[in-house]
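Quick one, C-alpha cells below. Sequence please?
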C-alpha cells in the first residue's frame, strides 16, 4: 500500500524527548523551544519567532495582534485550508474571498485589488504547495491601503521570494506576520505544531503576552517585571517541550529532508512531462520569483469526473492520492450565512487538483509504481 503521507523519524527526536522529560521541565519555553526558535531566526532571518501548538493557533494569534473586530474585512483566497479564514472569523471578521490564478492555486493580486474597501484590515496570502505568492504586488497593495499582511506559510518552510531588486527573503518574513505548521503532513513535523514569525519588533511583547494566556509571564521570567498577571487578551498557544524536542530532532536534518523531498518532486515532474505534452494533465508552475521547497506534488486533471475515475483506478492498486480544499465559498459554514458565489479558478482546483503520494520515506520503487499507474490510466 502506498499512502498519501507517512510521518517519519530521522534523527534524535526520541532521544531529545527523553532528555526533555528527564530535565524535569516538560511544559513550554524550555531548552528545546529555545533551540528551535534560535534555529529558525538564524537560518531564515526572522526578526522573532514563537513556537505554537499549530499553524491554526499562530493564525489566531495574528488575528489578535491585528486587533480584528466585528465587521472588519479580511481577504483570503477561497482555495485554502479553513484555518486561514477561521482564525479571523473567530474574532468577528467578515471573510472576503479572492480567486487563484488560472494556472496556479495561489492568490491572484488582481483579484485582491477589486475586493478592498474601507473595512479591509488584513490580506492573507497562502503560499500553496510552498510556492511563493507574488509578495511584491501584495505588499504594495497593502501599503497603499494601510492594511496588514499575514502570510499563511503553513506549507512554506525553507522557501523564498525574490523581489524585483534581487533581494531574496524567506517566506513568512515578508508580511507583518507569518504562520507555519509542523503537522505530520508538512515537510518538518512534530505531530501537531506551529510557529508565528513576527516581522516588526513593535509586536514582540504583545505576541508573547497573547501566547501566555494574556499574561506578562515571559517578561516576569526574564526578570523584567516583579510580578505577573492578566494584562491583555490571550490563550494557551505554547507547545510543550515534548513537541519542541521532537521538532528539534527534525530541524537538525532539515537539509537532508529538503534534498530528498526536492528529488521526489523533480522525478515526478520529469516523468509526467510527457502526459502534459500530450495535453492529458497540467503540472505545477513555479514562477520566476519563487523557489520550490518540495512540499507537495499535484496534477490538474481535465474534469471532476476524470479525477474521480483516476482516484478509483489508483486505489485498486492500493495507491492513495488525495484531493483537497473544497473552496471556502462552497463551504457549509459560508453558505449558512451568505448566498452562493462562483470563484472560477478556485472552483476549478477544487474539482480537478490531485495530490500524489509524497513523503520523506517514499522509495524509488514506490514512486515508480505511482508514475506507472498514472501513465497506464492516461495512455489507455
Ligand atoms: C496545514 C495547513 C494549515 C493548518 O496547520 P495546522 O498546524 O494543522 O493548524 C493552515 N493553512 C494551510 C495552508 C495548511 O496547509
Amino acid at each position: 500500500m502506498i499512502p498519501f503521507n507517512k510521518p517519519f523519524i530521522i534523527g534524535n527526536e526520541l532521544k531529545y524527548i527523553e532528555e526533555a522529560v528527564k530535565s524535569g521541565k516538560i511544559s513550554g519555553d524550555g531548552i528545546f523551544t529555545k533551540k528551535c526558535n534560535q534555529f529558525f531566526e538564524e537560518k531564515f532571518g526572522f526578526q522573532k519567532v514563537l513556537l505554537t501548538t499549530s499553524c491554526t493557533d499562530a493564525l489566531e494569534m495574528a488575528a489578535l495582534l491585528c486587533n480584528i473586530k466585528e465587521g472588519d474585512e479580511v481577504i483570503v483566497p477561497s482555495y485554502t485550508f479553513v484555518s486561514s479564514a477561521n482564525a479571523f472569523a473567530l474574532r468577528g471578521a467578515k471573510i472576503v474571498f479572492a480567486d487563484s490564478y488560472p494556472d496556479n492555486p495561489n492568490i491572484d493580486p488582481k483579484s485582491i485589488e477589486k475586493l478592498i474597501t474601507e473595512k479591509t484590515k488584513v490580506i492573507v496570502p497562502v503560499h500553496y504547495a510552498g510556492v511563493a505568492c507574488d509578495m511584491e504586488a501584495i505588499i504594495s497593495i497593502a501599503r497603499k491601503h494601510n492594511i496588514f499582511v499575514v502570510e499563511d506559510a503553513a506549507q512554506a518552510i525553507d522557501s523564498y521570494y525574490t523581489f524585483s531588486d534581487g533581494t531574496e527573503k524567506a517566506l513568512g518574513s515578508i508580511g507583518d506576520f507569518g504562520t507555519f505548521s509542523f503537522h505530520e503532513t508538512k515537510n518538518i513535523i512534530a505531530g501537531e505544531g506551529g510557529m508565528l514569525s513576527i516581522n516588526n519588533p513593535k509586536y514582540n511583547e504583545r505576541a508573547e503576552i497573547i501566547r501566555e494566556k494574556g499574561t506578562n509571564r515571559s517578561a516576569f521570567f526574564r526578570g523584567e517585571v516583579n510580578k505577573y498577571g492578566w494584562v491583555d487578551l490571550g490563550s494557551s498557544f505554547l507547545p510543550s517541550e515534548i513537541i519542541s524536542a521532537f521538532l528539534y530532532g527534525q530541524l537538525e536534518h532539515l537539509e537532508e529532508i529538503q534534498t530528498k523531498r526536492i528529488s521526489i518532486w523533480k522525478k515526478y515532474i520529469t516523468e509526467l512531462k510527457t502526459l502534459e505534452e500530450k495535453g492529458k494533465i497540467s503540472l505545477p508552475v513555479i514562477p520566476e520569483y519563487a523557489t520550490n521547497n518540495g512540499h507537495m506534488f499535484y496534477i490538474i486533471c481535465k474534469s471532476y469526473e476524470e479525477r474521480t475515475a483516476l482516484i478509483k483506478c489508483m486505489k485498486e492498486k492500493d495507491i492513495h492520492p488525495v484531493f483537497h480544499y473544497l473552496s471556502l465559498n462552497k463551504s457549509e459554514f459560508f453558505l449558512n450565512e451568505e448566498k452562493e458565489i462562483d470563484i472560477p479558478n478556485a472552483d476549478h482546483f477544487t474539482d480537478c487538483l490531485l495530490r500524489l503520494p509524497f513523503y520523506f520515506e517514499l522509495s524509488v520503487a514506490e514512486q515508480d509504481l505511482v508514475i506507472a499507474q498514472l501513465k497506464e490510466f492516461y495512455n489507455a
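Residues 254-379 form a domain with the Aspartate Aminotransferase, domain 1 fold (CATH 3.90.1150.10). The first strand starts at residue 48 and ends at 52.
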